[in-house]
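Q: I have 409 residues here and want to know how they pack in 3D. Can you give me a structure?
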Amino acid sequence: MLHPGDAISPRRRVLYVLLLGALTALGPFTVDLYLPAFVQLEHDFDATAAAIQLTLTGTMLGFGLGQLIVGPLSDKVGRRVPLLVVTALHVAASICAVIAPTLLLLGVTRVVMGMGAAAGGVVAMAIVRDLFGGRRLVIMLSRLALVSGVAPVIAPLIGSALLTVMPWRGIFVFLAAYGVLMFVCSIFFLPETLPKERRQGKGSSTIWQRYASVFSDRVFIGVLIIGAMTFSGLFSYLSASSFLFQQTYGFEPLQYGMLFAANSVGLVIGNQIASRLAARIGPQWVLAGSTIAMLLGGFGIVVCDLLNLGMWGTIIPLFFFMSACGFTFPCVQVLALDRHGKAAGTAASVLGMSNSVIAALVSPLVGLISTDAGITPTTMAAVMVGCAVIGILALWFIVRPRTVAMLTP
C-alpha cells in the first residue's frame, strides 16, 4: 500500500465522500443560500446594493481567516477537534444572524459564520490527503467535489423556496440546522486520520516550518494565484448576479435560483471532466486550457453586451465561464496538496484563505465601477476578464507547466 486509504473498503470510501462532501458544502451553502435575498435585504435595511454586497465580502473574509487558523491547527492537534469547535461556532453565529436587528450586526455575524464554515472544506481536503496521494488523490477530490458541487446548484433554489414561505431570516435558521447535522455526523462517523506520530514529523513540527514548506514552493505559489483569480472571477458573478438578473432582467427569486443552478451544473461537469483529464495528461495542462476558456467566456459577455444581445447574450457565455472554473478548481487543489502531504492542513488553509480573502477584495470592484451606470454585464465581466488574465500569466511565468512532473500512481 502506497497510502493509508488504499486499505479502506469501497463502502467506507463512499461514506467518507458523502460526509466530507457535505462538510465542504457548508461553505457554499453559507455563501450562496442567501443570494436570492439580496433585494429583500436592500429593502428591509434601506441600504444600497454596495452595502449589501459588503455582507458577502465579510463572509469571505471570515471564511479566509477561519481557514488560516483551522488548517495549521489541524496539522498540530489532529483533524477532529478543530472541525467540531469551528462548526459549533458556525451554528451559534447562524442563530445570531436570525435575530440581527441592523445590517451592521448582520455583517458581523456573517464574518463569524464565514469563520465557522471554514473548517469543513479545509479539514475535508486534509483528510483526503491524509489517506490518498497521486492519481487516487485526483479521483477522491473529484468525487468530493461532485458531492460538494451539488451545494451551489441547490443552494439558491432552496433559498428561493424558503423566501416564498418565510422572511429572509428563515435562511439562517436553515443554516443553523445544517450546521447541527454536520456537527453530529462528524462526532459519530468521522475518525481521526492524522495520528499523533505524524503530527510531529520532521519539517512539520511547528506552524512556521509548515508555512515555510508551502511558501517556498514555486508551483504552489503559482497555483495559489490561479485559484484565487478563478475564485475572484466567480465571486464577481456571485456578488453582481442577484442585482443584474433580478433588477435588470426582471427575474423572480425562483427564476434566479434556477439560472444559478444551471450555471453551477456547468461548474460540476467541468470538475468531473477535469479529474479524468488531469490523471491522463497532468493537471498543469488542463489549467492551460481552462484559464484560456475563462478569458474567452468573460470576454464573450462584454462583446455580447456591447452588441445589445440581451439576456441570452449574458447567460450563454457565463455558462462557459462557470464550466471553465469547474475545470480549474480540482487541478489547483491537486497541484497544491499532492506536493505537501506532511502539511496538508496548512496547504489547504492557505489555498482556501487566499481564495476567500482575495475574492472578497476583488468582487466589490463590480459595485464600485458600476456606481454611475448600475451593474451591467460589462461591469461584471470586466472583473472576470482581469482575473483570467492574471491567472494565465501566473500559469506560464510562475508554475511553468513544462517543469511540473506527472502525477505518481
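Q: Anything worth noting?
A: The mean pLDDT is 85. The chain has 17 helices and no strands.
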